[in-house]
Amino acid sequence: MPLLTGSVSLSRFNVISKPPSLDFDSAHFREIAPGSEVRESAGFVPLEIEAPWEVGTERYVFRVRIDRLRPDPVAVKERVKQLVQAELDSGMPFVGPKKRKRLKEMAEEELILSAVPSSRFIEACLDGDVLHVASSAKNVLGIVLAQLRRIGVIAEAKTPWADRGEPEIESDIIEAKEPGESVRGCRFLRNLVGDREVLIEPESGYVRLQTHDARITLTGGVLPEMHRLLEAGAEILGAKMITGETRFRFDAMSFRLSGLRVETGRHEHWIELLDERLDRFNTVWDLLDGKYGTLGTERESRARRLRIVPHPPPAEAMAAEAIAAEDMSTEATSTEAMLTENRSSTPATEGSADESAASADDTPREVTHG
Questions:
Q1: Of 124 and 358, which is predicted with more confidence?
Q2: Residue range 28-39, pLDDT digits in tens
Q3: What is the C-alpha separation between 21 and 89, in angstroms, rounded?
Q4: Which of 26, 136, 224, 313 could disulfide-link to 9, CB 3.0 to 4.6 Å?
Q5: DSSP of 295-338, one letter per residue?
């Protein structure tokens, strides 16, 4: 169970409206009956067997179970071969695309009668006006939100730019297509590069970028190539991040987390464990929200954007540079004093050859290349 153990993917949603009391039992999961024409069923089930829906003040935990009835694709492929061979044995010279499509539909209808539904469970927690869903898969998130609408809960993606009411910004490389996504997330992650508290994993890293021509994935020691691509104007879509002992992958456009693992103590009851893990999750969210407010998302100068800070020179080098500068200044002062003394001791004889030579040396010469 991701909310209670192991690594977790997380997506947040703001609850726009909800009834005074939530009736999860009214949308309880119902299994697909054998021989039914229903191919998919979804509904609510408790987080634990016979567990309550409400585990704290305005805090509800639940799972959305999704059952899909589909024939095994390998079995369908094999059955289509048999049906095609039967057509050829009956005297048909060949089987065209339209006929193959009809044979495939026949094979699926035949095999689905004996198919077993596949089940998937998505955990979630409705904590006050914030919904936490333990998944970052777009198709699954849509099903969870649809089930909540059945009991009167309306929610939309929670992101810093949505909370602040910031308008979308344009990019000539990427475009936000899904609800809640924004180019602002990519600009925020780019400004986060070089931060001392939230770091991009430097050794066993993972970074996704988008250029005008391609989508690029970097793994391992990603920093040098990542900096080069950012310098060339690429947009950064996601990265593996580190903060303290916590590691996670951050999807910038949707502001979602995956692979998040947190350390917790031992507890006698699963509700106590849930409370601590939710607190750890919120700590990571609060840190990212705070960084967003500090760093912003607008384009900045290249040096500031990449947070390239030159290393200060060693103390010995700085001392040597200061001594050299002082020596040069002293030498220049001595030279100027000697020149002044020579000028005052030389007699000024009008029309002398020395003065003519000096004048000739001081006069700029025009050089003509033939």
A1: 124
A2: 999 998 878 889
A3: 65
A4: 136
A5: H-SS---HHHHTT--PPPPPHHHHHHHHHHHHHHHHHHHHHHHH
